[in-house]
Amino acid sequence: MTYRSDNHVALENDGPRLDIVEKVTGKARFTTDYYLPQMLWAAYIICDYGDAHVRKSNIGAARAVKGVLEVQIDKQDGQYHGDRLGHICAESRQALERGLAALDLKFRIRNPKTRLEDERTPRDKLTPAQNDAEAQKALKESALAAEAEFQTQVQTHVALEPHGCVVDYRGDSAVAYGSTQSNIAFRNDLARELKLRQDQVEFHCEYVGGGFGAKFGCDSEGVLAAKLSKKYSRPCRVIRTRKQEHLDTGNRPGSIQYMRIGLSRDGKMRGGKIATWGSVGPTGGGQASAGGGGGGGVRNPSRYNFGAIAKVHEDVSLNGGYPRAMRAPGNPQAMFAIELMMDHLAEKAGKDPLEFRLLNETSDIRREMLKVGAELIGWSHRKPNGTTHGPIKRGLGVGVADWGNGRGNATIGINVYRDGTVEVLSGAQDIGTGYRTMIGDVVRTHLGLPRELLVVKVGRSDYPEGPASGGSMTSRATAPKGFMAADLAREGIRRLVAKEWGIQKVDDIALENGVFKAGGKSMDWAKACRLMMRDRLSFSSAEDGQYWKTPTGSEAVQFADVSVDTETGIIRVNKVVALQNVGLPVNRNTIENQICGAVIQGLSFCLFEDRILNRQTGAMVNPNMDMYKIAGPVDVPEIVPIIWREDRDVGVNSLGEPPVIPTPGAIATAVANAIGTQVRSMPLTPDKVLAAIASVGPAARKAKAP
Amino acid sequence: MNSFDYLVAEQFDAAVAEYGRGTAALKAGGIDLLDLMKEGIDSPSTVLSIGELGEFRYIRDENDGVHIGCLTTLADIGRSKLLKIKYPVLHHAAAEAATPQIRERATIAGNLCQRPRCWYFRQREFHCLKKGGATCFAVDGENRYHAIFGGGPSYIVHPSNIAPALVALDAVIHVRSTDKENEPIKAADFFVLPEQSLKTENVLKPGQIISEVVLPQAPTQSATIELREKQSFDWPVTMACVARLDGGWRVCLGSVAPIPWLSRPAMEVLANKDITPELAAAAGEAAVKGADPLADNEYKVQLVKVATKRALLTAAGLEVPRWN
Known about the structure:
The complex is a heterodimer of chains A (706) and B (324).
Chain A: H1 20-25, E1 40-46, E2 52-56, H2 59-64, E3 68-73, E4 77-78, E5 84-90, H3 93-103, E6 106-109, H4 116-119, H5 132-141, E7 144-152, E8 155-156, E9 164-169, E10 174-178, H6 183-194, E11 201-204, H7 219-232, E12 236-239, H8 242-248, E13 251-252, E14 255-263, E15 269-280, E16 308-317, H9 332-349, H10 353-360, H11 364-377, E17 392-401, E18 412-417, E19 422-426, H12 435-447, E20 454-458, H13 474-501, E21 510-512, E22 515-518, E23 521-524, H14 525-529, E24 536-541, E25 556-565, E26 571-580, H15 588-607, E27 638-643, H16 663-675, H17 686-696, H18 698-704
Parallel strand pairs in A: 1-12, 10-11, 15-16, 19-20, 26-27
Antiparallel strand pairs in A: 1-5, 2-4, 2-6, 3-5, 7-14, 8-13, 9-10, 9-12, 14-15, 17-25, 18-19, 18-24, 21-22, 22-23, 25-26
Chain B: E1 5-8, H1 12-20, E2 24-27, H2 31-39, E3 46-49, E4 59-62, E5 65-69, H3 74-79, H4 81-86, H5 88-95, H6 100-105, H7 108-113, H8 162-168, E6 172-176, E7 183-186, H9 187-190, E8 209-215, E9 221-227, E10 238-245, E11 248-254, E12 261-262, H10 264-270, H11 277-287, H12 299-315
Parallel strand pairs in B: 1-3, 2-3
Antiparallel strand pairs in B: 4-5, 5-8, 6-7, 6-8, 9-10, 10-11, 11-12
């Protein structure tokens, strides 16, 4: 038994998020909620176009606006829409906006590079891979071969809570609030900017409204807020606008992926050539921020056994915002191409796509997941490509993924108070994934205590060290320390009970369901805690101990069921079955939330999202939430999250990134199954779907006929 | 956003008088105006709100037709059994627009008067034709959502979901101003092409306020089909509204032209005939006559054919493809 359809989890946690009330009532304070007395407002002055020179600015008028404290232009040339040219600082938001309007920048637009397909080096001009001859040989020896080219678009991070920071510099110390995936990195960056020691900066990010890899370090917002707070000895806030969040805070780069793969007669892949191109910023990858990178790399090939592959890659500079690591960087776009290629090859080999995958799969666990998922989606009823009846056609598709699970540094602290309250402290931040709930449930269930006794405090720099929430790291780095610290806490209270009962061996005392028991005696947790003749007992662990276990590969397999209106090109995803190996599951709700959220983000990437740069000016035409299309409630299909394992043989493993990887490939292959031809360019919009259908329709066949 | 004086009208006559002075921007639900002001496309020194005039929020069935007050929300229309049964073409267009939250705020008059959703118009970076500039950036730029009919020199599409339904129903829009107590304007005459007026999308002159919309005749058959990329909070890429009135079928297309596009070729094919699948398909083919797509929006031609055909089939109660 490898899964339970009810997702019952080993630690038996089905409780809601610990911070649910705070979040739905607005009690939770995000960075943007901090309005401090005497606070200054500051913002970057940005370039309006892709490649442009400031030919006119009215700095004098901007400075003359009442309430504007300073206006500074640092450079006259902008290389992308959103490029930071200078800054403005004012007494109020109103003054800030008036100052920006008065500045009235005029630009001379040069020739922005906006399209990956136009700017890339042609494949035959790229330097061949070192093993090109080996791949060439594999292709030559292959009985069959197929080639195809795929394209994916730029997806912006567009976190619901924009990047931002509020800094209150106080001479020999500072208090700051920021939206981040690493409060330690943020604090350290601020300390450096303010020339303070690390201990002199108190940093808060108790609540974060989303982070997908673009919120490490204090970033440009923190740099500006720190500089101005120090200069004026007043608090200063720099919060990005929704527009700037699209333009200048990172994106998943666009890609073009060429694949030519050879097959042996039995359908096994022998090797071949892969060329990928990725869109990066005007001066390369990941240079937009102080805190994080992200090039144009694409993880193609991966997951399947492709044989001997000669791979070449080129980062292609465009006059658009820089990419930054985004939820499984390089992976969803790779698996879009790979899964379509797998189907293409399966067809060449005359095999069912599932059978072809099982034949070329590298993971035994995924092979098992593929079989179970196929049963859950009804793969045996899958029709040959394009053969369902009527204009609205149905199709099934599949995608796979995995993720690494290394160790990470963290410390979990526990204070047990005399009234029985268990306070869990962790400097790691909850970026919306449910970390607060996860670490609380680790400690609580390990001690066997009710939730009412538990308080979990996370996201402050003065709490015990937490890891950066990137690379699907947080849970696997902290959970073992949580178990260890809980063991220490149990031991500490048990000693009090042992002393009270005159028992020498503390191991003779059991703690079950919040009650200590030994030799017919019993005492509940709260009463036991009152035995301490002090305010609290404190415990902490920075060690994994016995709780670090051989990790899984966080394997993921998803099956998609879609309908495509072949007369309009509109796609609706009916259902996604998402099987996910998470290692030891802690809280069912947060795991299911993570999987469902990832599927929705993957669907949105596959069908809708697209950073569109105007070809004449390089300006992004859709930097808002109505024209940058993101899946809404009606677009969300039935999602069946399946937690693959429920036993304690493995540790708590990665979950943030793996489930977002298979979705685009699963949907794209399902669409191809429905309409009988592949749409090889994301997003799969009606124009592309109709064009693909037309390319194999009667008219196209007639045109191709000799 | 600029700072501004905020006036709240307590009487419609007072609002008409104040608006007639020509200094205020008019706000009903505020959906459109807020977006324009946030981006700096519009920066009025005074905003005049008529949103609190509850007496202009009504749907009344009277002898001369159904009267809909200017402040009736899209959600009100969506909740109206009368409109659902007798005017499905309008009911559907309102009930499916935007999101539930927006429908509760957005008014029928505001919906008709909203400015284009063209991404060049909506962004301050583009000094486009409609904002007094020299270029319609859509012509050589990103134009996948732009007009395939009636374009030039600007290629916006009219953003209202309600307008094509009203044109199909041959509705009458009643307008008040300090000069005229009531000026009825046929919906089909209300909207203007860019070649007639670049800076506005309708015939309203400064100081004129829509007071109500009248549907003079209930169609014997009607339907709306909207084709959207996304099913939540998205404008249709193409819509077709059809209604069978005494004089015959009226077909109006949305999201494909700078105005609700009354498709006379389709109407000529249909005349007042009963719908068959063949006739619906023929009307769809006729509806694309004169289409002149830009580089990236040729797919809309196919969508117009399908939307028109399916709207007619739906109106006639015939089978249309359904999501399964």
